[in-house]
Amino acid sequence: MIGRLRERVRRLLAPSGTLPPLSWRGQLFDALVALALLLAAVAQGDGGDSPQRTTMVPYVPEPLDPVAPPTPPVPPVPPAARPVPEPFLPIDHDRTTATVFVLALVVLPLVFRRRYPLAMLWVVLGTVPFVTDFDAVVRVSFYACVICAYTAAVYSPYWIPALVSVPVAALLYAGVQESAVPTVPVDAVPFLILIPIAVVASGLRRWKRRADALESEQAEALRRATEHERARIARELHDVVTHNVSVMVIQAGAARRAMDATPDQAREAMLAVEAGGRAAMAELRHVMGLLTMDSEGPDPAGAADLTPQPGLDRLEALVQRVRDAGTAVELTVTGQPVDLLPGVELTAYRVVQEALTNTVKHAAGARAAVLVAYDADQLRVEVTDTGGTPGASATTGDGHGLIGLRERLAVYGGTLRAGSRLRGGWRVTATIPLESP
């Protein structure tokens, strides 16, 4: 329960998007807004020490004419005693320099309001307790807070914290001196109600668009990961099935031709077909075991059927199967063998397997040579053949085998070169940088 609550809180506090790009025009506009607010506060705040100015209309009585007969007195016009609120409060002349300096500090966050929306709002709020002795500064701070609150609600990726900060700011300024915070005329109340509703509605729509975009990005990432995994499984199945089935087809054909004349050779060929089938089934069970593995590990009932991924220690068995299929193969290992990552060994094994499979399919009757060389800084695997007659299954190739090998090698920083030899035949060379497991 606590974990779910913590996860929900984390999601609410997580950013729902990114900040929009800020142009130099936007930066210049923010700087001008801050400067204009500072200059207006300084220019209009030099009229005295009273907390609020009032515009009074004095009554001046008309002079009496001594010659003219007296006229009945006219009731005096009452003075316009109703105060007219002004946007800025006067600056105390005894503290002009300090007030101007504090004003500059209060409006400075406006310069960075769109680059750090929520942070600048909290910077303005954080300065309030330190400027309460300056009524003129508190009023300008209130204006800066309104601007920063709007910016945070519209631009901040942390939309929920930005909305929560607005009532916090209202409560903070509600505790400040009444004379410092401007009063709201009655005619402005509808606007103060409708405008925030419009801003919140716009923010909700924008948040929903960001949520939809994030969901689409996650779906696209899942789709790409699924396609990548399908491609990896397809390469694995291709390497496992193509080699063993190609050898089995050749052995079965040899057994069919030798069945009447030399039954012993036909029997050996069928045994080779059986061995190839068993090897193919073992590797297929391994691949399928990886596909059916759940989060708690492989199924204990099927774990005994899984065999380790083939490595360089099984090259001899691979070469022997190809020899049994009728292709002469020579295996040579040079250099000092070192411990390699399992993935590197599997990749080298697949290179030899794919190259020998192509030899069996496309160069019947050829002789092949496999070289595994442990150099100082790389592992080099080379498979060559002398060329021969394409077999019956040669037309089924689609070139995906070499593409899959290049992708496998690229994972470990390796390269693959494949092409014909000047003396005839084909050569496949793979190099993999050596790294300690």
From TrEMBL:
Keyword field: ATP-binding, Coiled coil, Kinase, Membrane, Nucleotide-binding, Phosphoprotein, Transferase, Transmembrane, Transmembrane helix, Two-component regulatory system
Keyword Heme on entry: no
Database matches in InterPro entries: HATPase_C_sf, HATPase_dom, Sensor_HK_TwoCompSys, Sig_transdc_His_kin_sub3_dim/P
Annotated CDD domains: HATPase_UhpB-NarQ-NarX-like
UniProt xrefs under Gene3D superfamilies: 1.20.5.1930, Histidine kinase-like ATPase, C-terminal domain
EC number in record: 2.7.13.3
Coiled coil segments of this chain: 204-231
Domain Signal transduction histidine kinase subgroup 3 dimerisation and phosphoacceptor positions: 229-291
Pfam families: HATPase_c (PF02518), HisKA_3 (PF07730)
PANTHER family given in the database record: NITRATE/NITRITE SENSOR PROTEIN NARX-RELATED, NITRATE_NITRITE SENSOR PROTEIN NARQ
Protein name, entry field: histidine kinase
Biological source species: Luedemannella flava
